Amino acid sequence: MLDVPETFTWVYRDRTTDASHFTGLETAAGLAREHTTIGPSDDAVERLHRAQFGAFIQGEVLDPADLGYLQVGWAIARWLLQHGDGMVMDAESGR
């Protein structure tokens, strides 16, 4: 059983009722493509534009030595990808 930090949350959103989160990711992707050489691929940007639903995951925890919060985040991301057609984008890095 995973220990999920109290400040770790995820929300499933529909673009038709909450477009602001999708717009924010599209902006981050565009900036990453413009200002770095490791920004998202053309395919990733196209999938982001087509996305109608999204699971927005956020974790704000202290940086423990074992980086357990990263393991929880990636476990959730892997589960979501295994159960749907999607992609994972790190909003902080735009990747």
Structural shape: globular
Number of helices: 3
Which structural category do the helix and sheet elements fall into? Answer: alpha+beta
User: Order of strands in the sheet with the most strands?
Assistant: 1-2
Query: How do the helices and strands follow one another from N- to C-terminus?
Result: EHHEH
Count all strands and give the number: 2
Largest sheet: 2 strands, antiparallel
How far do the termini sit from each other? 29 Å
> What's the average pLDDT?
79
Share of helical residues? 40-55%
Estimated share of beta-strand residues: 5-15%
Radius of gyration: 14 Å
Note down, in words, how this protein is organized:
The chain has helices spanning 19-35, 42-50, 68-82, and strands spanning 8-14, 53-59. The chain starts with 7 loop residues before the first strand and ends in a 13-residue tail after the last helix. It is an alpha+beta fold and 95 residues long. The mean pLDDT is 79. Strands 1-2 form a two-stranded antiparallel ribbon. The protein is built from 3 helices and 2 strands, in the order E-H-H-E-H. The chain is globular, with a radius of gyration of 14 Å.
Topology:
Elements: E1 8-14, H1 19-35, H2 42-50, E2 53-59, H3 68-82
Antiparallel strand pairs: 1-2
Keywords:
two-stranded antiparallel sheet, 95 residues, globular, 15% strand, alpha+beta, 3 helices
Concise overview:
With about 100 residues, this protein is an alpha+beta fold. Helices cover about 45% and strands about 15% of the residues.
